Each structure stands twice: as structure tokens, then as C-alpha cells.
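User: Please predict the structure of the protein below. I'd like the answer in C-alpha cell form so I can feed it into my own downstream comparison script.

Assistant: Understood. Taking the following sequence of 94 residues as input:
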Amino acid sequence: MNVAGLAPAVKAPSGEARRAVGPLGERNEDMGEKKTITVRQVRSAARREERQTRTLIGLGLNKLNRVRTLEDTPSVRGMITKIGHLVEIIDEKA
């Protein structure tokens, strides 16, 4: 026990490599490769609802022709759907 009364952290043996473990404990070799989606803002947020402006900012887009590559998740897809008239999808990578 250390001074704070907590047990010391357990370290993995130095010869073993760390492996990615999913949320349910399963090991997955390709967890490091994530799907991405690239979007570009093609229309201005001026005179749009505040909610749409906030969604653009949440995606990292707030000026025309700005391009962002984002992780392809359901929440990002939902945000893009809500402002689909202001952005275009350039590329989707698996």
C-alpha cells in the first residue's frame, strides 16, 4: 500500500504487447481502424436556425468550403442528416 492507502497499479509484463479489448471484453485486432467520413460545408449558416449553426460548429464546420474528416458514428451521421442541405459528403472510408 502506498501513502494514500491505495494498492499500487498492476503493470503488464514488459514482454507482452497490449491488445485492444472491446466494450464486452472481446478482443478485436482491427479496432484501431475506424470508419471515417469527410464532409465539406457548401452553404452558409447565415439566416438559419440557431440549432443548425450549432450543429455545424459541432462538426467543426463554420465557414464555407471548410473540410473535416470525422469518425463515422451514428451520432455524426445524424448531425449530417440534420444539416444535409448545408454540407456535402466528399468521401467515406471503411
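That's the full C-alpha cell string. The two ends are 47 Å apart (CA to CA).
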